[in-house]
Amino acid sequence: MSGTPQPTEFASGSGRPSRPFSAAAQRILHALWAGTSAKFIRLSFVALMGALSTHPALAQTPSSNPDASPPPDHDQPAPEASVSTSSNAASEPANVNPEPVNAPAPLPTPSQSSTPPPTHPSPEDVDPRDPRNVPTLDEAPSVVGALISDVERIIAAFEDEGWFIDSEAYAQIAPVLLESVCRTPADQRLVALHILEHDARVDPERLFLQSAGELTDEVEDALSARRRWTALKLAMARSNECPFWSKPSADFTGRQTTRDKWAIHAEGGGLVSLGRTHERYALGGGGSGRLLIGRGVGDDLSLLVGAEVGGGADLNPPGDDAQFTLKYTAAVPLMVRSRSVAWHYDFELAPIALLEAENTNLSWGARGGFAIGLSTLRVRDFLPWAGAAITLEHYFPSGGRQSSQVLRGGLRVGFRWLP
Fold first, then answer.
1. Could you say which of 127, 158, 170, 194 has the lowest number of CB atoms within 10 Å?
2. Which CATH number fits domain 262-417: 3.80.30.20, 2.40.160.20, 3.50.50.60, 2.40.170.20?
3. What pTM, to 2 d.p., does this model score?
4. Residue 253: strand, helix, or coil
């Protein structure tokens, strides 16, 4: 048989093909009918399943039979846009869903999801500004506490001088505060800023209005907290101005306090005294000086020990041969210093010895004392301060003298050298 199809020959007077070609024609028609029927059935099945998958009642219900959807037929051409099922529907396209029948429903967006967020977020999801995530000073690294102590100390010093215009105060604070900021690692600066931000969450202006326009202690505390946070934030914005020789260090212990560091203390001042020996009282005056070494313990305490010498004169009662009695003292003070920002409070015990110009025999005694001081900001390697002190001395009978008590008080100044 030739590969080229031949025209069909018909018998005269009839519409049927001639017999030589009737068997071949029947086979061709049968094949076309079978192929068309199979294609029609497949397209009808796909159209039916697509319609079911888009039905509202069945759209979210996956098929119970995972094999119900036939695999894609790569040997067949893509389905046509319309399938004629009857003479009335020939012009209406069938809704053929190109997606697999068993495709899962799309995941809900976060706004649509009803599942609550996890109780314990991962570290990268933690907002350090959230009050629940802000560490306390006890939990934060030591360098954070050192920076915050310096901020508190600097702000307190400027408030003591009389804070009025914010912009002028912050402009003067920045160079002083940058000496601490530049020495603090960048990540620890952020931790300190978040702690101060948490402390400054109370609005001082709102408190001021609620207190009927009175500058109460609560308003001043909130105002100081807001100033500390703002000052550190402004100084950090200028951290690019840090000199190249000022390097951040995780061992930074602060510049404005003796927090966690050794220091040498030099102190002295004038004293007024009132002495009592049995029923005899004597007024006097003099001065003393001391040199101590101390170690800061955290933000609040310092322990100090050292040596002190002093001298003065007591007025003798009328009728005595001499108008004055010169006296000299030596002591070994042991002191606990409690610090509160710019203020400090000293509690002291000391063994003490006394001698007189006319009687060089030693009298032994003990002393207890209290002092209060106010510090200024650091000047080079020194932290100056000034305050007042009061002591009570008791001398035991010794050195040819009777028991006596001496009350002393006066001004005291000093400085701490941070080597």
1. 127
2. 2.40.160.20
3. 0.63
4. coil
